[in-house]
Specification:
The complex is a heterodimer of chains A (about 450) and B (about 100).
Chain A (H helix, E strand, L loop, with lengths): L4 E7 L8 H7 L5 E4 L6 H11 L8 H16 L2 E4 L6 H14 L6 E6 L7 H6 L20 E6 L4 H8 L4 E3 L5 H13 L6 H14 L27 E4 L5 E4 L10 H8 L9 E2 L4 E3 L4 E6 L2 E5 L2 E3 L4 E21 L3 H18 L6 E7 L19 E10 L2 H9 L4 H4 L4 E2 L9 E12 L6 E6 L1
Parallel strand pairs in A: 1-2, 2-3, 3-6, 4-6
Antiparallel strand pairs in A: 1-7, 4-19, 5-14, 7-8, 8-12, 9-10, 10-13, 11-12, 14-16, 14-17, 14-18, 15-16
Helix pairs in contact in A: 1-3, 3-4, 6-7, 7-8
Chain B lengths: L1 E3 H4 E8 L2 E8 L2 H10 L2 H7 L8 E6 L4 E6 L20 H6 L2 E3 L3
The chains are: A alpha+beta (about 450), B alpha+beta (about 100).
Chain lengths: ~450, ~100
C-alpha cells in the first residue's frame, strides 16, 4: 500500500481553464488527475447532441486534451478519472482509444461506467411505485414526464473503484458525484472499507474541496483577494491523501494562487445545505467536524472528519423542456444614463403590450446599477454614472412571442432615448429553457456497470 | 457601535436549484460570536426582502467560524430557468457582507 497519494483537480466545470490539466500533469508529481465536467443541466445539452448524432453526447474537450496529456500520463503512470463521458461515455472512451492508437500507445485500459441513464426506464419505475417526486417542490414527475430530456442517477465512487481494480488507467463515467471522483482513488489505494464512514467522509470532503478547481486555491476568493499572487498562472488544487484519512490540500510549487485556511474554508461553504448532513452515496459527511490547519506554505491539513451511514437512495438529476427565453441588452451613456435606460424599458414593455405578446416573466435589470444587488442596490448620483446597460429578458411557452420580443430591441436605437449603442451582436435569439428536476431513487433499483475498452 | 460585515468576515455564495446558499466566515473568534448573536435568520430574511421570496435557514459551523444561510426561492427559478443576470447567486455573499450591524461594544 502506498503511504500517500496525490490527487489533482484538472477542471472545475466544463469550460474551465484548458491549460489546467496539462499543468497538473507536467508541473510536479501527481498520481491521479480528476476532472469534473458536469453541471446540473449539462446532461440535457449532451442528450440533445446525442439525439442529433449518436456518436456525440460527451465533453468533446476530452479527446483533444488526451492528445496532449496521454503520453505524459502513460510515462508517469498517472491515472485519469472524469465524469466527462456525459450521456455517452462509450463513445468518449472509443475516441480516447483512437487518440491512443494514433500516438502509438499500447496496453492501455480505459474503464467506462454505465448504467446511470434511466430516461428509458421512467415509465417502468413509475409503474413499480417509484414516484421520482421533485425534492424541492414535492411535485409528481408525471406533470413534466412528456417533456423529459434526460434522467441520470448520481453514482458514487463504487463503479470507479471497480474500473481501477480491473486495471483501468483512464476512467470515463457519466453522471457521477463530483466528490466520488476524488474519493475513489483513496478507497482503491488504501483499501478503505465502505463501513468506515469517517474515512468515506474524509475523502468526500477532499472531493468537495477539489470539485470546483481553483476556487480552493485563491480563485473567486472574497477575503484579501488582492494579495493573491500570480493569478494568471493559478495552480489548481491537489489533495495529498494519507491512509488514516488526513488530507493536505496543496498545489504545485511553481504556480500562482494561494492555499490557506481562508481559501479552503470558502470552498467548504460553497453550495452546501445543512452542514451536518452532506449526503453522498457513500456516507453522510458532517462538515461541522472538519478541522483545518496551515501546516506549511500553500499546505492546509484537513483532518478529524466525521461521517455517518449513507441513505438508501441515489439522487437522480433529470431535466425537462420548459419553454423559451431571450435576453436583450442596450447601452446608454451620460447624461442621465439610468433615466434613459428606465425610459427605454417602459417604452419596450408598452410596445410588447400593444403587440399583445404575453410572457411567463419579463425581467429588467440595469447593469452598472442593480443587476447584482437588485432591491439592495444603493441610490446613486446619476451625474457620476458614465453609462448603464439596459438588460431585459423574457421567458414563455410561446416561441413566436419570445422570438418577436427579440425583434423589438434594435428598433429602440432609432425610436427611443438618445446616446444609445451596443447592438452589434444582432437580434436576441429565442433559446430553449431546460429546467432541472432533482429526485431520489432506491439504490437497489439501479446497478452501475463497468466496461473495459482495451487499446 | 456600527460595524460592516465585510470588515469582520468573508464568504462565498452559490446555487442549489432555486435556493441560494451564502456562507459567511468570521476572521476570528470574536467576529464569529458577533455573527452568531446578530446575524440571525430573521435579520437575513429581512435584509433580502424582494430577493429571497421564501424562508431563510441558518446553520452554525463553529469549527470554521462560519454561518451557512439557505435562501429559499431566491434565484428566479434557478439554473437556466432564471432570467436574472446573476442566476446562480454568485454575488449574494458580497451583498450580505455589505450589511451594517448595530452591536453592543
Amino acid at each position: 500500500m502506498k503511504d500517500k497519494i496525490r490527487i489533482a483537480s484538472g477542471q472545475g466545470f466544463w469550460g474551465d481553464l484548458l491549460e489546467a490539466p496539462y499543468h497538473q500533469v507536467t508541473k510536479g508529481p501527481i498520481d491521479y488527475l480528476v476532472m469534473d465536467y458536469l453541471a446540473e443541466v449539462t446532461m440535457s445539452i449532451l442528450q440533445k447532441q446525442k439525439k442529433k448524432d449518436p456518436q456525440l453526447g460527451y465533453a468533446r474537450d476530452i479527446p483533444e486534451l488526451m492528445k496532449r496529456i496521454l503520453p505524459i500520463c502513460v510515462e508517469k503512470d498517472i491515472k485519469v478519472i472524469t465524469n466527462g463521458g456525459g450521456v455517452n461515455p462509450i463513445s468518449c472512451a472509443n475516441e480516447i482509444k483512437k487518440v491512443a492508437e494514433n500516438l502509438g500507445i499500447k496496453n492501455l485500459k480505459i474503464g467506462v461506467v454505465l448504467g446511470d441513464d434511466i430516461l428509458d426506464r421512467i415509465d417502468d419505475l413509475l409503474t413499480s411505485g417509484v414516484d421520482l417526486k421533485n425534492m424541492e417542490t414535492g411535485e409528481s414527475i408525471t406533470t413534466i414526464k412528456d417533456r423529459l430530456l434526460s434522467a441520470n442517477v448520481y453514482f458514487g465512487s463504487e463503479p470507479i473503484i471497480d474500473a481501477l481494480q480491473k486495471g483501468a488507467q483512464i476512467v470515463i463515467t457519466g453522471r457521477t458525484t463530483d466528490t466520488g471522483l476524488t474519493l475513489a482513488p483513496m478507497v482503491y489505494e488504501f483499501g478503505w472499507s465502505y463501513d468506515n464512514y469517517d474515512l468515506m467522509a474524509a475523502g468526500t470532503v477532499a472531493g468537495h474541496i477539489l470539485e470546483c478547481g481553483a476556487q480552493s486555491t485563491g480563485g473567486n476568493f472574497l477575503g484579501d483577494w488582492e494579495s493573491i499572487e500570480n493569478m494568471a498562472e493559478i495552480g489548481f488544487p491537489i489533495a495529498e491523501a494519507y491512509p488514516d484519512g488526513t488530507v493536505i490540500i496543496t498545489k504545485h510549487e511553481n504556480t500562482g494562487g494561494l492555499v490557506s485556511v481562508d481559501t479552503v474554508t470558502e470552498q467548504l461553504v460553497y453550495e452546501i445545505g445543512d452542514p451536518k448532513n452532506y449526503i453522498t452515496p457513500e456516507c453522510v459527511a458532517d462538515f461541522t467536524s472538519i478541522k483545518l490547519e496551515q501546516v506549511g506554505k500553500n499546505r492546509v491539513k484537513v483532518y478529524d472528519v466525521k461521517g455517518n451511514e449513507p441513505t438508501k437512495f441515489y439522487k437522480v438529476s433529470a431535466s425537462y423542456f420548459d419553454g423559451y427565453s431571450a435576453v436583450g441588452t442596450l447601452t446608454y451613456s451620460w447624461p442621465k444614463a439610468l433615466t434613459k435606460a428606465k425610459a427605454a424599458d417602459k417604452i419596450l414593455r408598452r410596445r410588447l403590450e400593444l403587440l399583445g405578446l404575453t410572457f411567463d416573466e419579463i425581467r429588467t435589470e440595469f447593469l452598472g446599477y442593480n443587476a447584482c444587488f437588485g432591491p439592495l442596490a444603493k441610490e446613486i448620483d446619476e451625474d457620476l454614472i458614465n453609462e448603464v446597460v439596459f438588460r431585459i429578458a423574457v421567458r414563455g411557452k410561446d416561441y413566436n412571442a419570445v422570438e418577436r420580443f427579440g425583434r423589438e430591441i434594435a428598433p429602440l436605437v432609432l425610436t427611443g432615448p438618445p446616446s444609445v449603442t451596443g447592438f452589434a451582436g444582432g437580434r436576441p435569439r429565442a433559446s430553449e429553457v431546460i429546467a432541472y428536476w432533482p429526485s431520489l431513487i432506491p439504490k437497489e433499483l439501479v446497478n452501475p456497470e463497468v466496461l473495459i475498452v482495451e487499446v | 457601535m456600527k460595524i460592516r460585515l465585510i470588515d469582520i468576515a468573508h464568504g462565498r455564495s452559490g446555487d442549489k436549484g432555486d435556493s441560494a446558499n451564502i456562507g459567511i466566515i468570521a476572521y476570528d473568534d470574536k467576529g464569529y460570536e458577533i455573527l452568531k448573536k446578530y446575524l440571525t435568520a430573521e435579520v437575513v430574511k429581512k435584509y433580502f426582502e424582494g430577493i429571497c421570496l421564501g424562508e431563510v435557514e441558518r446553520y452554525e459551523m463553529p469549527n470554521i467560524r462560519a454561518l451557512n444561510f439557505i435562501l429559499h426561492n431566491a434565484l428566479g427559478g434557478g439554473g437556466t430557468v432564471s432570467l436574472k443576470h446573476d442566476a446562480q447567486g454568485k454575488t449574494l455573499a458580497s451583498a450580505l457582507l455589505r450589511m451594517e450591524l448595530e452591536i453592543e461594544e
